Amino acid sequence: MNILDLNDYSLLGIIEYLNSTELWQLSRTCKKFHNLIKHKKLWWIIDARDSPHDLNKITFCFKNIIDVTKEIRFCSESRCGEIIPNDFIGYLKYTNLVIIALENQKISGNKIQLSEFPQSLIELSLRKTYVTHPSTFIENSSVQMKNLKVFILDECFWVNGKFIYILGTYSALEILSLYKCKKLFDFDIRYLTDFNKLRIIDCRFSGLGNEFFKYMTQKTQLQEMYFENYLTMYFPTKIEREKELNSGSQPKKYSYYSKVDDIALWDKNVVNQHFGEDCDTRKRAYGHVNYCGTTLYSEAQAIEGNDNNFKSILYEPPYDKCTCGLNSETIRINTAKTEYLKRDIGHDRFPREVNDPFELRECTGYIYELSFRANDPRNFRKHESEICIRNDLDLSIFEHTTDGSDDPRNFIIHHQDIDFNEIYPQTYRRFTMPGERRKYEELFKKSNLVNIQKLSLRGFIGINDMSLKDMENLGLSLLDVTGTVVSKEGIEQFLRLNPDCRIIHEIMCTCKPKIHF
Questions:
Q1: CA nearest neighbour of 189 among 172, 205, 167
Q2: Which carries the bigger pLDDT value, residue 264 or residue 88?
Q3: pLDDT for residue 336 is more than 60
């Protein structure tokens, strides 16, 4: 019996399990399948992330976006690949899409704007997508994105302070993932507003630190907040994961992992290897959280938040259930200290002799900042759209360099003509000045009720027993303080008041958060 002898109903029951790439391939085999695949039942969800990322396949899938389509997912071979058709917005105009994932590709922000996306959108992922002209891409989008609850911007180096500022005006936003947004810095987003419905913020391996942390302590609806120090934790975790892959472990599907994604910017030898011996560099303090940030929790009162049954399809929480078998009832004897991180990777991310009093007080790590872009002096001070980017390596170099301006405001927003006085209500200042701490404390005292349940401060050596003391009344269900300087005695004292809290630490639960590949 030939499969074509089956009736259409039976064939539909079989091919409904195929993804959109497989449907496109099947449609090219014969006329019967070509006609059968037009059935509406097959296009509720369009997932075309499997290769090949052929232009004909992309066009085929877009032409099958219909009124019943609720979800579309597309990606390219690399984040330099521009696969979205020019009439992309036209395909979406009369749809009721709920989920859109445009990942690992290039989007021209001057051609495609969020203000033209369907108003029905609830979840949006641009994971590892390179968006040119991000200011144009997001401007005037607040009304159109009024129903958006989840926005995933993982590994998007172009995300800047103005972008985050506008996201704060998205009235329904509940989950925001800024994982590995390495060019986001505290001083660039000091005067945020809104984010009043945000429940989950994931900013692991970004440059965000104390100021962002203190701002988020004011949000009564916030339930989960994840920080992880890029300078101390990322590369040891990355090396360990690569060893697992070499030993036969399976990589995550659609991880878009590339070996040129990361450069050890704290190591001058590595910087010189990538950018040349004559590259102009300077040290720059990088994202940190310490006991000064957690102090605002010392007056907090834990409350029970409203039940929220919304479960995201696109966002994946970093922590699964414990699999190591260790919990708050067992504290293991472990002499491992923060220095093990240095041993694993072969060099230190923190200076042995610190002369800068700010760096000493705040336990701040540093990176080397480059003063030209894309490894080619001819690109110096060119607009982003004029820089020659031919492949992922060029894009990675562009990601890790800046325009050479001495004004730190231009380090992040180097390709936009932005009036900071228009964006932020107060004069720019890089570090916390006298009176600013009082400002945060006064704001917090107006509403010191918090609903934070899960908190990660992984890898920050400024987190100590004072921090645990500050957080002991929060009623946390999960706290990750791996790679900090909290002591065994500090953990024991915290657990006496919080016996149900899952502590993740070298002497406690050793389960690790998920990494992207």
A1: 167
A2: 88
A3: no
> Dihedral of CA 37/41/42/43: which sign?
positive
The residue type found at 119 is: Q
Closest CA to 513 of 194, 257, 241: 241
- The DSSP code sequence of 15-42 is HTTS-HHHHHHHHTT-HHHHHHTT-GGG
Question: For residue range 281-301, what is the model confidence (pLDDT) as tens digits?
Answer: 767 667 788 888 888 888 888
- Find all residues with CB under 8 Å of 205, minimum gap 6, and list them: 179, 180, 182, 228, 229, 230, 233, 234
Do the Cβ atoms of 474 and 452 come closer than 8 Å? yes
SS3 107: strand
Could you give the percent of the chain with pLDDT greater than 70? 73
| Strand 301-302 with 45-47, pairing | unpaired
> Which sequence spans correspond to the domains of the chain?
275-284+345-435
CB 138, CB 114: distance < 8 Å = yes
Mean pLDDT of 97-107: 96
- Cα atoms in the 13 Å half-sphere on the side-chain side of 237: 22
Distance between CA atoms of 399 and 265, rounded to whole angstroms?
12
Strand 71-75 to strand 99-103: parallel, antiparallel, or no bridges (unpaired)?
Answer: parallel
- Calculate what percentage of the chain has a pLDDT beyond 90: 43
Instruction: Quote the pLDDT of residue 343.
Output: 34
Instruction: Characterize the bridge pairing of strands 449-450 and 281-285.
Output: unpaired
Give residue-wise pLDDT tens across range 429-441. 333 344 555 555 5
Cα–Cα distance, 198 to 181 (Å, whole number): 18
Position 389, amino acid: I
Structural tokens at position 403 = 């325009």
Separation CA 193–CA 139 (nearest Å): 17
- pLDDT: is 48 or 331 the higher one? 48
One-letter-per-residue 3-state SS of 110-152: CCCCHHHCCCCCCEEECCCCEEECHHHHHCCCCCCCCCCCEEE
For residue 449 the two structure tokens come to: 């009720």
pLDDT at 76 over 90: yes
